[in-house]
Write a structure and sequence with these properties.
Blueprint lengths: L42 H11 L7 H14 L3 E4 L2 H11 L7 E5 L8 H5 L3 E5 L10 H13 L6 E5 L8 H11 L2 E5 L7 E2 L2 E2 L6 E5 L12 E5 L2 H11 L22 H11 L2 H18 L6 E3 L6 E2 L5 E5 L1 H4 L3 H10 L5 E2 L15 E2 L2 H9 E4 L7 H14 L10
Helix pairs in contact: 1-8, 2-8, 3-7, 5-6, 11-13
């Protein structure tokens, strides 16, 4: 049972190692997955306490402690919810997004960054990436805001996504958003532990969201967190996340609510995971840099840029494959890895290329398309053993078919 780097787990067990065996011939090497859970040690104790004391609902000591620990870690009030998508939905509603509004979003992202816009009856407008970080291009944002202003239209909000563990360049993004009066939400689902100019990603805009899906750098098996500078926004999100039940004896409701609260049981896993976050960041970065160094002599393969303004956690080890220089396409490398029982994936397919959102307006898109065409995600689990990293390295090197420069190991 495994978890991969899509937005939801295919299946999940807490004990799944990075080398979980897949069905197949006895002599086939164990399957290496893209990103699997890695337990830290105290998760079982916290979960056992919840079971022993019968705190199995959406209240209890673990959820209180997890929110408090998370708030201390990032410096903002927090509310734990059932998923990062739920946090996004609540966050956009907190910013006043509603029927008919426009919401700006990078096109290079996972669909969960965009679907909550549609949940609220709003319309996404997609923006291109910059090559320096793969994130939202501030220049494209400026062009889009100028164009909308000339047309007498002001987007209600902007979702800024921090991709694969690297922050977007928030200073110019926030300055532009303030100039044009557009509210900002940070989607830090892939970026817990990431820093932007020494500040945690997800804490710069008024509202930020995080994901603890099974493939993330830490997990609650499924879950998310919403943070905000205004504690009243966090209180409102907590209220909405528990079906917006008004105070009193009766089940009385004056607002729309949702069943979005995290359970006390899963919050126990989160407490143990948060305790080892720094180690998990260190491990992910070490794996990415080991791959980078192992491929340094090969033409046509390069690690995702590491922007100078912050700390990139390298949640996933992402590379670009220049097919002409490397002698093989990105997809051919993925197929070679699959034949060796190693999972690899393309980077996210841009939203403007998705049938679901193909008719949405956009500004640019060629950079995102190029990154998608060449982008490759390699196994990145923090529990990935050195010998298993060697397996990945050997297959990628063997896939190189350049006319010159592909020295064999």
């Amino acid at each position: 049972m495994t978890c991969t780097a899509g937005g939801t787990a295919d299946a999940l067990t807490l004990s799944t190692p990075a080398t979980a065996m897949s069905p197949g011939p006895m002599d086939r090497p164990p399957r290496l997955h893209l990103s699997v859970p890695h337990m830290g040690g105290n998760e079982e104790r916290y979960v056992r306490e919840a079971i022993t004391t019968n705190w199995l609902s959406t209240v209890g000591p673990n959820i209180d402690a997890f929110e408090a620990d998370f708030s201390r870690r990032i410096g903002l009030p927090s509310v734990a919810v059932s998923s990062g998508t739920a946090a996004l939905h609540l966050g956009l509603r907190l910013l006043g997004v509603g029927l008919g509004d426009e919401v700006l979003s990078p096109t290079l992202t996972f669909v969960a960054s965009v679907n909550p816009i549609a949940y609220l009856g709003a319309a996404p407008v997609f923006l291109d990436s910059e090559r320096a970080s793969w994130n939202l291009d501030p220049n494209v944002l400026e062009h889009a805001l100028e164009a909308r202003a000339r047309a007498g239209r002001r987007p209600r909000a902007l979702v800024v996504v921090h991709l694969f563990g690297q922050s977007a360049d928030m200073a110019p993004i926030m300055a532009l958003s303030e100039r044009y009066g557009v509210a900002v939400l940070e989607d830090a689902a892939e970026a817990l532990g990431t820093l932007y100019r020494e500040r945690p990603a997800g804490t710069i805009a008024p509202v930020g969201v995080f994901s603890f899906n099974g493939n993330k750098i830490i997990t609650t098996t499924g879950g998310g967190m919403l943070v905000a500078h205004d504690v009243d926004l966090v209180r409102k999100a907590r209220f909405w996340s528990t079906q917006a039940r008004d105070p009193g004896l009766a089940y009385h409701h004056t607002e729309m609510g949702y069943n979005y609260r995290m359970s006390n049981l899963l919050a126990g896993i989160g407490r143990g995971q948060l305790e080892v976050l720094d180690d998990r960041v260190s491990r992910r970065r070490a794996i990415a840099f080991r791959y980078r160094d192992a491929f340094a002599d090969l033409p046509g393969i390069s690690l995702m840029p590491q922007a100078a303004y912050g700390l990139h956690t390298n949640w996933l080890s992402c590379f670009l494959i220049d097919a002409d220089a490397f002698g093989a396409t990105r997809d051919q490398v993925i197929m070679a890895l699959d034949r060796a029982n190693i999972e690899a994936r393309p980077v996210w397919k841009p939203m403007h290329l998705q049938p679901l959102y193909a008719s949405a307006p956009r500004f640019g898109g060629s950079v995102a398309e190029a990154l998608f065409a060449q982008g490759l995600c390699l196994p990145s689990s923090s529990s990935l053993a050195t010998a298993d990293q060697d397996r990945v390295i050997e297959v990628v090197r063997s896939a190189c078919r350049a006319k010159a420069g592909c020295a064999r190991p």
